[in-house]
């Protein structure tokens, strides 16, 4: 199988770096184009980036020149890791030029004809992309993955929703600093501290969760008819968002039934997507887990780890969820979306005509 | 006014150290006796203690010998900062010997005839102490203050309960390491990490909150008839417990009514208790507060700081509460209890007869 | 005694905030003017500042309008907390306009006619200010205090230099994040990490140390004829610079002689400067001290704490030095300089004529 | 090639866990025996251990029973990860019983007939093991690797010593908490703090460095004739010791000569030891590197990373060294020693006869 050429928009940021790390040695995709802000354009990537991961920049990538962030010369598959403001302006240009834009940005997640997708949860929502005007005109489209705080939660909730129905959700997040990019959170704000506020995060977490768990009705997603309330906090953790969750189910379920729902949740089994974890939701039995330092890399950073399942005196059950915010919560999420699109025949070179 | 002689049980631990720090220069009390484990007994306090506060050990205290932890030779007022297991055995001996034991331990908090008290919240529960058999026999008694995670929350809830009634409470804590004593939490467990579990903490937080907000009916406290569910987490913060709270009220209330309830909450006004903060509940308007590093010392560490008041999509309101866990949440709480007992005439030397 | 009116240049930064905190209730000085960048100008200080200290903004200050950073309308005594680039341009304007500029910036520290002073160390260097052209023309002048990494070290070295002479100095610093201002160090760079580089810091530490320990020869400071090599590192500490030091003395000295030199070092005794610590160099005997969290507030943050004195297998002695980098290392240093200038009659209102 | 059976003494500690992690899928060795304290004996390893690594316990290992720590039933190759006190008593028993004890403990490092070895540095010192009485009697022996603070430093110094000679060494360490084991450093001691003391560490670092760089003269190691002074500090880093180093060379050398010495240092090239890094000393050019979070995993945690090379105003050169303290500094060091012993024919099953 020949690898498909891909490009990365926003390649020098934290999520862009994760894309490069995860795409090194990827069996299906090959990075051929890197774009970043005008400031970086023209420089070798290795000079333009402040690399903050603990693996080396692949040598081939370090020497690759940073391209201007315009569709000219870009490949047809674009992973986009842009801030929402810039994404809002730039992603449509690439879609209009015929590119498949696999976006990690929040800019278009709630737009009616843009799929917001977690492959294990709502792959069928991808059908929406055929409704996009770009798709009809140039073959291009935008597909998005959720916010880093939503994705681990939704993975944990989906098996419960399927089997028991969900009526209400309480969630308090303790989010890692890498979620804010670089330089992001000032050390004076977070060292030995908690910041009980992340701009727009509670709104995104609430909205996206219900959309992801919602149903595709014709050309629209009908959000899940459940109530959700989120408290979002920043804590002094490098990677890995921890969430305290209480849920009220529509149908009572035993502890063993919940564990079975998580254990048996494997909607991508047999599809052989390279980035898909064997077990999307891992339950950890120890009473003091999951913990970000110890559990974020389960499933190569793509699993959602659940623990501390116990009855809730207000709702039915409470538990803790953890997922890696820049792998499963960002670059890995987009990459898995792209792999699914390949399987669905939506990333065939032939379908795209610039 | 002559200062009353007091002793400290468990003087070398983290809470014991706070007692010493807070009692230095106290206008009403004077430390004359310090007790700790057998290992420390006989040594000068300055040698026995691993002092972990950022103010110096008062010179007079450093030279004071550590006494054995027995009532012989102890003064009649005892501040107790013992682990629950030891407290369960030791505090009754001091009460039986005629001591007023002002305890920070959880050992007897839920015992029917032992007052669990926050002076601003349920001072009337102190009447229970007259029911104690020790009181009747020797004049001694035990009075307790709540768990460090309960006290800030209950201070914030009390004004709402008084004016609007409380039906349901969701609370997720992010607790400081000093709450676990010394050596307490291993650095390998908490640096760059969150531990979503603190043994027995959720149970204590839930039970104590309802008891503190409950009503004294004859010789019993009837807990508040509300539902409460707690998630307790440990985070990499030295001092100050942060809590994300959602509440459902019995009577709808506007934002301004909530703010007024907190602002006007001043049940100890006019009593001139030295350790009482002028404003027990401080509201901070900035969108990203309260934060432990910046707000824990409000009211000299005795205030409960509230912020981020906003509507809750599941209950009525949500907000963040912060309080200093070893001042308001431990030594300062006990000290304020003692000051109230002085006002009530329950710490008069004459009432105690060994 | 009437308090003298002072202004603060760069009032919204981290050092500016410390000036405000330290000057609240100062017996000699009263803040009447606050200036910051154009962006802040005109706003009430409480709105313009991102206050990062754990004490409240004094109410009077919060309401004070931020003035433009020009000498017009400024009082004659100016505490300057500006970045070096801005200071280089702005401080001379204030000096030319007749102001006594008490500067914390590095911009003019090494200029021949600008005194670089620690009151306990080289108060006589203040004579240099009479050489400044501004002084001759308008009465204005610039006086500076050293870099935050130099000041604790020099306080510890001065008593040794006086009694035994110093030939060589090795110093490795572990510096707190607050030294970089706000937002300063990104949390992704320092959480669970060490950064072995602080721009220009080693050069400043080396140069300033020798100048501070140098001698005033006529109109010039002759630096100390010693060798010094510095390694500067940033660590995950909020406040307090820790330094590992080895020294070679010109005259051999015993442990007890070193301890006596530090203990008896009290050059400001009897001067009653409000900010001067009773003991400028405190020795702490415990084998694992000084530590930033426990010792930075000695002498109200104005002491240099020394510990771990032991023989050095390469030089004569090695020890650890700690001092608070934004109090003794910045705002407190400037304030103590100003107090000394008052004593010397160099801050009399009459001497300044705009 | 059949894998040789090995056992781990002290398997539940932090270094024991690293042994298990590094030995999973090792081509030459297979874990067949795990021993720990009596408390753990008999339990399945997965229950006995508090696993603190971010990879899962291999399933086969989790189910393996923990054996008593006695030579009966133990395989002939033993990796020992014991505290020094216990090692002093226990390792000789295993050596006497015919085991090759590859020890990470400090207990016998300075004993004349026990090799203290870094394969890239002083492989010839292994000859000493033939002098051990155990070797002569039972075939068993003890081989040790250095302290975690010495190993990265010595790797960086060895190429300089070879080419230019070393006269003097100054080193200040900033050591990670994992070096103290679990629970090890209390979080209250290190969060937002520096502890300028690690018991016996400076002595070990000084002594071991000179022995490792020393020469085998007959049956004795003659330590390097250089002076060394160490300052050891603990900082809030999980893994990775950072060291600020100044060296005085016997023969002047240029920057380019030093870089070449490090670049060309490859004494194990061609030996194909599975754990040996391709480049034992990596130089990183960025001005603010190496940093523990970013560089500790170079060479799979087995490289020593050097950066910030610059002239020293007291000695010749100064630079920063970083190495992973529980991989290259402990379990990985022992494992590489074992691999070298296999190459040398000292771990052939036939040579050992119980």
UniProtKB/TrEMBL annotation, chains A, B, C, D:
- InterPro entries reported for this sequence: ASADH-related, Asp-semialdehyde_DH_CS, Asp_semi-ald_DH_pep-lack, NAD(P)-bd_dom_sf, Semialdehyde_DH_NAD-bd, Semialdhyde_DH_dimer_dom
- Where does this protein act, in terms of pathway? Amino-acid biosynthesis; L-methionine biosynthesis via de novo pathway; L-homoserine from L-aspartate: step 2/3; Amino-acid biosynthesis; L-threonine biosynthesis; L-threonine from L-aspartate: step 2/5
Source organism, top-level taxon: Bacteria
Query: Which Gene Ontology terms cover its molecular function?
Result: aspartate-semialdehyde dehydrogenase activity; NAD binding; NADP binding; protein dimerization activity
Q: Where is the active site?
A: 148, 241
Cite the Semialdehyde dehydrogenase NAD-binding domain residue spans from the record. Answer: 5-129
| A GO BP annotation | diaminopimelate biosynthetic process
Say yes or no: keyword Ligase present: no
Q: What class of enzyme is it?
A: oxidoreductase
The record's keywords, sorted A to Z, are: Amino-acid biosynthesis, Diaminopimelate biosynthesis, Lysine biosynthesis, Methionine biosynthesis, NADP, Oxidoreductase, Threonine biosynthesis
Key word Cell membrane present: no
State the EC number(s).
1.2.1.11
Q: What is one Pfam family matched by this protein?
A: Semialdhyde_dh
PROSITE patterns, sorted: ASD
Which Gene3D superfamilies does this entry report, sorted A to Z?
Dihydrodipicolinate Reductase, domain 2, NAD(P)-binding Rossmann-like Domain
Matching SUPFAM superfamilies: Glyceraldehyde-3-phosphate dehydrogenase-like, C-terminal domain, NAD(P)-binding Rossmann-fold domains
> What is the stated purpose of this protein?
Catalyzes the NADPH-dependent formation of L-aspartate-semialdehyde (L-ASA) by the reductive dephosphorylation of L-aspartyl-4-phosphate.
The family this protein is said to belong to: Belongs to the aspartate-semialdehyde dehydrogenase family.
How is this protein named in the record?
aspartate-semialdehyde dehydrogenase
Species this chain originates from = Acidipila rosea
